[in-house]
Amino acid sequence: MASMNDKDYYAILEVEHDATTEEIRKAFQKKARKLHPDVNKAPDAEERFKEVSEAYAVLSDDDKRRRYDAMRSGNPFAGASYGSPSQPQGDPFAGMGADPFGWGFPFGGVGAYGTQRSARRSRSYNPQAGGDVVYQLELDAEQAKKGCRRGVTYQRYVSCDVCHGAGSVHADHAKTCPTCGGSGHISVDLASLFGIGVMNMVCPECEGTGKVVADPCDSCGGTGRVLSASEIVVDVPAGSHDGDTVRVKGMGNAGTNGSSSGDFVCRVGVSTERLGPRQAQGFQMIGFALPFLILGLILNVLAQLAVIILAPLALGVWLVVSDGGVLGRGAVWWKNAARYLGNGVMNGATVAVFVALMVSCMSGFGSSGYGTGSGDVRA
User: What DSSP letter does each residue of 165-193 carry, written as one string?
Assistant: First the structure.
């Protein structure tokens, strides 16, 4: 993940560092027209379009631009990572409202990147709590041991300033959906076409909620939230380890139609505490052998299963101790080892159950199979 200091948003938009807001807007429109995925079919067009949008989101806002300039000049935020958090399901630009580019056809009303069609595809009133934003912050062993403070800039859904998160500017309450009458479903008679009678389907206007926003906000399209760049300071406590998390309440994605926001979850990563690929594979192979060892003890067939047990066990141990083994992996290597060991046990158990069934069937077949000379023979 690239550092924010490594991203020159001015160069991305091809503007001077003292460019005005209007110059930045025009530069963004010019580039976005060329890179919009609905028009540009190049393999990297979508990624470049997102990068241009990211640059515009920061430089078009005076406060965000000042913080960005300060970061690049070396203030305490310097070295903060810039990355995109996990977005809610669906189009990450949905709900941005009216066409932000001010374009006409073919850009207005088409596509799936924040244009009028995607923002107003539904008036559904559907209050839902916002999801958490999960961010991976990589530290070295010394930083994790002593603790540190990092500034992070990231994208998330925030409450719409125009409608204050409600989804509607003038109406205080949602209204009953006029299409389904509040049931959330509509009935479609397909008898004349397919001969299957009446079919119930989710109402396309309210999306099954039974309510719609009475007067959808032009800025957010009625969802009550828009996509924006945000900044936060994360204090990583001393003694942190790989996989630890730091949670900041309320700094995740805003909920729809005034619902509560999720949290910002910073996941600490310490590469020196992770198992290497060889060690991880070794613990998986050891775990694979354990169910067969238990099976052999229970059924008293250790000799028959010796190859299945000893081969992966020996290879697994060799992989674990190779390349320095787990020494120097920090204090939590055993947690990662237990996870890989558990995966191996699950895989081995699946095969062991199959083997046990085969052994059981063969034993039953042998005891009740063809008759031998021990039966009664009558003259």
Answer: TSSBSS-SS-EE-TTTTTSSEEEEE-HHH
